[in-house]
Amino acid sequence: MADACHHCGRDSYRSPSVVVDAVATRDVGGSREVLLIRRGHEPCKGMLAFPGGFVDYGEDPEDAVIRELEEETGVIGTNPVPIAIHGEPTRDPRKHVIALFYLVDVPPDSVPVAGDDASEAYWVPLEEVTKENIAGDHILIIDKLRE
Q1: For residues 126 and 33, what is the distance between their CA atoms, to the nearest angstrom?
Q2: Please, are residues 48 and 136 in contact by the beta-carbon 8 Å criterion?
Q3: Phi/psi class of residue 16: alpha, beta or left (left: φ > 0; alpha: ψ in -120 to 50)?
Q4: 125, β-bridge pairs
Q5: Hey, what's the torsion of the CAs at 95, 101, 107, 111, to 10 degrees?
Q6: Catalytic residue positions?
Q7: Which of 43-47, 59-63, 82-86, 96-100 is predicted least confidently?
Q8: CA 34 centroid distance within chain
Q9: Which CATH number characterizes residue 92's domain?
Q10: Which pLDDT belongs to residue 12?
Q11: Domain of 90, in residue numbers
């Protein structure tokens, strides 16, 4: 049984979950590329997405985004800088999920290797990412990167 709120006495809170997504880019031959994974599980199985996942209880989101980046791509990131928050309550079909997007520095010669729940991980030219091939609201971040 959960502890009761000391103000109102209720013992069950419905709270949103928090996810983090790593946004890493590099410039190659005059083209900008973004590090993406192909989702190996639902929701959005088979779609492109930024590497990311749920923040563990007691974990700092900045630590979580670096951990998730490494788990899903094998790439080591540094210097996470928040760039967007998406919290529309129906953005994830599983439950109310708030996403924190971080720009993360990675070595430009990084060779991603899919891990965890990613079926693939690779650098994708920014111009090849479309609303049809990327998961959910991640296209809003792609559009920001194109500005």
Answers
A1: 5
A2: no
A3: beta
A4: 33
A5: 30
A6: 120
A7: 43-47
A8: 13
A9: 3.90.79.10
A10: 64
A11: 30-146
